């Protein structure tokens, strides 16, 4: 059930001027074993279509823009690669010259490929500004050894390691969803929702916003919902609020 206080807070968001920043995996769609299959369903696409017409909507993801665009066939504002790249009104911006890491991540990907022989079940995905190591199908007892290898690569190549749900990701150093969000919204009212460690930066850097943790775990968000379907109920409330005010 949605917290009554959250329902009251939602009234502070003003259609036309307030921002909505939504993480994707685990927040709008469930976490699944195959990351390439996380397509948005028709209900979600309809909801996002409505939301972007009423609020300043951003999807804020660790994914690449290409992945998000394949999953959600809408022209949306995006913050991708955990904050390394933003697409605002069709224009692309990179954090701190992040695009200069393209070659490095390609090299890391190529030289990592043999790890699948050392760690049965490991899947490695090439992203332009990141490399994703998915250990969901690995034996749990092998994961600490994989982590050590990945930390070594990150130190050698001067990139950051991110530990998410069943994944390690090498990403552009210093990226932070929270700073990217802050730069976009300035001090305008906003709702920010996310489910994972990377979203905690979004909450911490934007304490004045309405922040929602999706699912269990320690958080600095002001509110919590149980899962992505309850998050969708919150979005429906936002749409109803906008409808009442029009
Ligand atoms: O910031 P997000 O939109 O939450 O992206 C974070 C990572 O999401 C994806 O991985 C997660 O979802 C996958 C599909 O459900 C799941 O298989 C994986 O275990 C999760 O960690 C994505 O693959 C990563 O690149 C993102 O960084």
TrEMBL record:
GO BP: trehalose biosynthetic process
Entries under NCBIfam families matching the protein: HAD-SF-IIB, T6PP
Family: Belongs to the trehalose phosphatase family.
Catalytic activity: alpha,alpha-trehalose 6-phosphate + H2O = alpha,alpha-trehalose + phosphate
Function: Removes the phosphate from trehalose 6-phosphate to produce free trehalose.
UniProt pathway: Glycan biosynthesis; trehalose biosynthesis
Single GO term (MF): metal ion binding
Record-linked SUPFAM superfamilies: HAD-like
Cofactor: Mg(2+)
Superkingdom in the source lineage: Archaea
EC number, UniProt record: 3.1.3.12
InterPro entries named among the record's database cross-references: HAD-like_sf (IPR036412), HAD-SF_hydro_IIB (IPR006379), HAD_sf (IPR023214), OTSB-like (IPR044651), Trehalose_PPase (IPR003337)
Species whose genome carries this gene: Thermoplasma volcanium (strain ATCC 51530 / DSM 4299 / JCM 9571 / NBRC 15438 / GSS1)
TM helices/strands, residue ranges: none
Protein name per its UniProtKB record: Trehalose 6-phosphate phosphatase
Pfam families: Trehalose_PPase
Lineage: Archaea, Methanobacteriati, Thermoplasmatota, Thermoplasmata, Thermoplasmatales
Keywords: Hydrolase, Magnesium, Metal-binding
